[in-house]
Amino acid sequence: MAIVCAGLVLLAVAGLWAEDGTDATERWSQFRGPDGLGVALEESQSLPNEWNKTENVLWNVEIPGRGWSSPIVWGERVFLTTATTQGQFKEPSTGIYGNDYIAELRAQGLPMEEVLRRVRERDNELPEESKEVQWLLVCLDASEGKTLWTRTVHEGLPAGGRHRKNTYASETPVTDGERVYVYFGNQGLWAYSLQGEKLWDIRWEPQEIYLDFGTSSSPVLHEGRLYILHDTQEGGFLAAVDAESGKIVWQKDRKIEHPMIRSSWSTPFVWENSKRTEIVTLGAQLIISYDLEGNELWRLKGSSVVAAPTPIANGDLLFVGSGSPSENIRPLFAIRAGASGDITLQGKETSSEFVAWADPRGGSYITSPIAYRGRVFVLYDKGFFAAYDQKSGEQIYKARIGRGGNAFSASPWAYDGKVFCLSEDGKTFVIDAAADEFEILAENDLEEMSLATPAIAHGSLYLRTNKHLYRLRAQ
């Protein structure tokens, strides 16, 4: 529950062609694509702009269990994770963990910590998972959607609870075309062959997550290494793992010092810029960037306490923001390449040597921003949508999507000069990326709850709902 250059993205990620003969447009290898940017690798006439439960649907298959991980694609295989149980899962609900209930408690003058404690108590009154959970990896045929194989990656009692909006399978897997890597926070990391053979696994001791909200940070893959971010109440870590052998290359303790929340739910971002390659991480009120050996390069204080979005970049500009509905501090930063040391803004500053610009109220709660065609677009949980000029930080507009009542958890994606925003009710709003005023071009309704960010490959959109996976393609 972790994100390009103006115009077309260069098809240079891992080369135009892989050794198995797949080209870049047949691969969507990790959360938000091979670069983590959420932008299609090419503009294709077959990518759909309009759809519903029957229109422009190439196939639609039912997925067992519960999971908000994104699908990933490599060649003719689609992979995704899910969790099943012989017991009863809590039913998910739309909205940001019960906004009406939180508003009622806040109106009583209760501090936020007490509000969240009561929210957890209410959640615990719901049916609780009291039996073993099966964590599954599912491989589908991309052309027809039929299941090729399913593997039970892990089975047992959960290491902790989860928020009603979360699942036990919210982390997106990643593949390099040789192996599929599956990470379930507080359970471990596994590697499988594309044929479903288990190759290796790593287990870490479970650590407490704030208020038992569960985990969601996905692994990222870069030049033969997997990077795992696991921020917890006990400190957590950032680790680099050799993808072939499964050996831990290095593991660095995270020292998030916030007195109440030290957990985070953000996916790390590998930023390749003209100066160097770095690993950018978002934690509670703290952004830290590391080199590829785990040494800290720079840090920026002043982000929100709840850290869930994934950073993004366009060349030498990095964009990172965060902000939950309960916080007054919810900034969006644009950071220049080459920073070092503590680059925290002072007082009311909104720029500095390495901070190109900042909007103190521009950050989003769960969704990650998107950089596309010279703009940064931010989708907010309560249904607002903002566009910024990438270089200047000028806000071009901020508007409400629809007539209100729409909640958003899936991150936006882009192609064909449009930005797509999927609501928790399963309705996708298609927005003109070039207009200087907010304009909705289409509304596409699948009529089923969805919190998962889609994948884009084969000129198609792979979109996961609560119970189904759709392959959408313009017919």
Helix content: under 10%
Structural class: mainly beta
Strand content: 35-45%
Uncertain residue segments: 1-15
Strand order of the largest sheet: 1-3-4-5-6
**Helix run count:** 2
The profile of the biggest β sheet is: 5 strands, antiparallel
Q: Average pLDDT value? A: 91
Radius of gyration, in angstroms, nearest whole number: 20 Å
For the terminal residues, how far apart are their CA atoms?
A: 31 Å
Question: How many runs of DSSP E, i.e. beta strands?
Answer: 34
Task: Characterize the overall form.
Answer: globular
Assembly category: single chain
Describe the structure.
The protein has 475 residues and is mostly beta strands. It has helices at 99-107, 112-124; strands spanning 27-28, 57-62, 72-74, 77-85, 133-141, 147-156, 174-175, 179-184, 188-193, 198-202, 220-222, 225-230, 237-242, 248-253, 269-272, 277-283, 286-290, 296-301, 312-314, 317-321, 332-336, 341-342, 355-359, 370-372, 375-379, 384-389, 395-400, 413-415, 418-422, 427-432, 440-445, 455-457, 460-464, 468-472. It has a 5-stranded antiparallel β-sheet, with no helix packed on it. Strands 15-16-17-18-22 form a 5-stranded mixed β-sheet, with no helix packed on it. The longest helix has 13 residues, at 112-124. The chain is globular. Mean pLDDT is 91; it is low at 1-15.
Please give a quick description of this structure.
The protein has 2 helices and 34 strands. By secondary structure, the chain is mainly beta. It is globular.
Topology of helices and strands:
Blueprint: E1 27-28, E2 57-62, E3 72-74, E4 77-85, H1 99-107, H2 112-124, E5 133-141, E6 147-156, E7 174-175, E8 179-184, E9 188-193, E10 198-202, E11 220-222, E12 225-230, E13 237-242, E14 248-253, E15 269-272, E16 277-283, E17 286-290, E18 296-301, E19 312-314, E20 317-321, E21 332-336, E22 341-342, E23 355-359, E24 370-372, E25 375-379, E26 384-389, E27 395-400, E28 413-415, E29 418-422, E30 427-432, E31 440-445, E32 455-457, E33 460-464, E34 468-472
Helix pairs in contact: 1-2
